[in-house]
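Quick log. Single chain, no ligands specified.
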Amino acid sequence: MITKEFDTIAAIATPLGEGAIGIVRLSGTDAIAIANQIFKGKNLENVASHTINYGHIIENDQVIDEVMLSVMRSPKTFTREDVVEINTHGGLAVTNEILQLALRSGARMAEPGEFTKRAFLNGRVDLTQAEAVMDLIRAKTDKAMAVAVSQLDGSLKHLIDNTRQEILNTLAQVEVNIDYPEYDDVEEMTTALMAEKTSEFKDLLEGLLRTAKRGKILREGLATAIIGRPNVGKSSLLNNLLREEKAIVTDIEGTTRDIIEEYVNIKGVPLKLVDTAGIRETDDVVEKIGVERSKKALEEADLVLLVFNASEKLTEQDKQLLAISQESNRIILLNKTDLEQQIERDLLPDDLIPISVLENQNIDQIEDRINQLFFDNAAAVEKDATYLSNARHISLIEQAVQSLSAVTDGLELGMPVDLLQVDMTRTWEILGEITGDAAPDELITQLFSQFCLGK
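-> predicted structure:
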């Protein structure tokens, strides 16, 4: 793809605030010339590409900051344009002042995600790789990061591109058979070819869809509700999993009045932990609101950690919680096993996990059970595996499978092959939307608008 002509954009590429460095990034035809106007040091027009240069940012002979400035010439850059990155001292005022100076010198403020959008439009990355950039930024665990890196390296792109090419080859072969019927059995040969290839493509895409559950969990995390009646140790469990004191822990019932949300890394799987108010009947108006929110969290949770107090007998509230969580992906935890046990074990399911949050006993078994529930005891990420984790990709693959199913149904009904080509061609087009080869402009604009400034 030939690099397109764009104006020069600029943005701060590091989080705003105090830090060791802040980076102001410029990209475009005039990036080096604009930087040269505000940089005192070497003449940037003459320096070699991919070098870092010491100097000062100045305005009207006044030094704004001492910087290291990187010059990267097209096409060997992320955007395939000339790129300049000004490494300044990390501070809100100085970084913003350098950005404003670049804008006054001829650059335009970048839109959210515009650097990555230019990389896409200039053929540096496809849509799956562009989306992987944001997934990598947002990754909360090492395994989520591994999935994003694999997609950034082009694993999904290559699979989709190869499949689309195979579909084209099949369509071309069918077309040849139709246009040049040299044999009496040409119709039978063409139908057999279409059936064989349709089955292959469908098996491949359905196999990819089977990775979607794992991939989406690794990308977005499991919404996990910790539920139980008041004072069974929900907040203590949250703090134990987080390894820090996030929730208030007291012996007073109803201390947790609202929902507390935190992310925790469980063997590479991000859990969005929700510590809910104890579910019970109450006349306290504020607590009653917390209880209602807890019930809503239970309905929306991917995983429920149902906590009971082993040192007390089951109450009616406990039995109600058992009933309303029965259809959920739940793990039943019997807490306070370090105390004398009073709970009726025979009234509880056999697969419960006895724990003591106070003495940190059997907490690791919770992690093992999560692996059983959601990953079938397999490693969360197999080496070199291609995972679907993006909701847009999953939806398009499902549509492609439906198109292939239409081809299969048509073959069984004896429909003419040239009519079946319409659904096969539609499959090719749908897969092209994943990589961006056949994506509408509105979709591309909407996708990149979700990126942060400077990316």
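The longest helix spans residues 155-179.
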